[in-house]
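cron nightly-structures :: item 1 of 1
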Amino acid sequence: MLIPLREATSSDCGGKASALGELLRAGLPVPEGFVVPFSVFDSATREFGLTSLKPATARGTLADLCLPDALCQQMEIRLSDLGGGPVAVRSSAAGEDTAEASAAGQHESFLAVHGLQNVLEALRSCWASAFSDRAVAYRQHRPVTHGSAAAPQMAVLIQRHLDAEVSGVMFTPLCSGEATLLEASWGLGASVVEGAVTPDAFRIDDAGEVTPTIGEKRYRLDRSGTRLKTSEVAESKRSLLCLSGGSARRLAELGKQASQLLGSPQDIEWVIDRHQAWLVQSRPITAAPHPSIRASAAGDTAPQDSASLTGTPASPGRASGPVRVVNGPGDFARVQPGDVLVCPFTDPAWTPLLAGAAAVVTEVGGRLSHAAIVAREHRIPAVLGVPGARRKLIDGRTVTVDGTTGSITTTAQEARR
């Protein structure tokens, strides 16, 4: 019923689990784990006819689902085999983390989950996330290779949790001679992948030369017992690179090995725990940064003048539209097609807004975050890491966003000093 991660294949465990299983078999540093395969999810959806229900009803049914005793017993044994400590519980849906679509951030993941009952609850939540509003909206705009637009097949990956001191994301070279792009911040990697911080950025060229840019890194996410805790980073550490040049080169080398094994350039999430580098996700790059962005030094942006703001160029193109400042879900109904979405950062729950937006501007985040990936998949310009954007850009006024150079152009009257 449960499959060791080392034995995972895409046909029964999805792209996320199968890629990590292949890396693990090859001896690359991947945390051990196991997978609840498609067959278990399929059994539940068939029994309750979930694909014919409205998404909200299907979510509720799965959240309250009574799981078979045999599954619970096997789960308890597998968790003991992993040491009985906290685990990460992550979705591995069919069609997710493939060359056709990343589904970046569309399904649930949970860190620092401890104890059988909490793991079972996280499992049900991962299943239910296949029916979330954001996942349904994403599938309407992107291909689904297995299952249906209503719901894909959903496997769930359970691995030993790592207490990261530093973590982040890297994009391996698209072709020979190109550089590896890497973003990093203190603590657990969710803050980087979800765009909740502006991370340190690194460009590691083919000769191993590292070009870094220091990010703000104001907050960090860590495990505190059985919970996750967000705390402010000390001023002295915000201005320090969180990764050495040697560590960046080592990660780039691991990334190249993963790309060779998996047969394509990879979007990789990584962790450094107790000075050991680990790979915790590897998927094909579906939406690479524009070549001009990849070739530039990390953090390069257009020159700023009195009539423009600048940030990190994250998704190429140029578009104009009225500013729509979004502070949270309460503002979602105000967003109209063609608006320029201006927000603190783009939580995955905000993905449906990107489908109709002309462009997106955030106050924090990096070019390898989920927001940047989804913007590139939707082919809308994105400029991230623009401090004070919600204050400086006036709601309803027209601006032009250039996601290739990283500029937001307005007029002197439209920008608040």
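cron nightly-structures :: done
The domain at 291-409 is CATH 3.50.30.10 (Glucose Oxidase; domain 1).
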